Amino acid sequence: MHMYPPLAVEITTPLLSLRGATDDLLAELAPLVRAGEAVAEPPPFDDPMSLYEVDPERRVQRWLQGVWRGRGSVSADLWRLSFVVVHDGRAVGMQDLIGQRFDVFRSATSFSWLARSARGRGLGREMRAAVLHLAFEGLGADRAESEAFTDNAGSNRISQSTGYVANGTTWATRQGSAAVLQRWQLSREDWLPRRRDDISLAGVAACRAALAISARPPTSER
After folding, report:
1. Quick check: is 126 in a domain?
2. What residue stretches are annotated with the N-acetyltransferase domain (predicted)?
């Protein structure tokens, strides 16, 4: 049993699993971060982002510090759950879920990256489906949000294919230059017809208590 309950959460689909980002799993991902496997062209992330760090060792250090900082700053007002994506027994990326005053707004935002060597296999969409199942079924979200630069075709395509609707644009900086972010939103009502029965959750009750999220009955009971 983990002293930090979010590390015990696991979401399992027929294709992959999302596991709480323990230090052991982060150590498996570190060589991918060091090798620059998280980045793409055009650059997918807004500033500041440790994955843009030029020096490989500094990149790993800042990335780890960011994950650890997320663990240490959890509160009812703001939390970030970090998961390692495991496919065929290998750690291949990360999927995060972020909540701000979640018990009030019931809205969660996703963030992810996938190693270059694991792209093109449908894992990006499966990761999103898994974390949406956690958000809606496990934590009782009313809506999920995401955003991506308008030229990030892969992320925007995943949002569209999983049922999100466009929710306006905003500006962000990317490596110091201004770029347009497309916002996306998915409501519980739009997710329910797409709800999958082949995704399982473990460790969610203890996690919900740690995040001070009031319980809601599962979808099947509403």
Report:
1. yes
2. 37-197
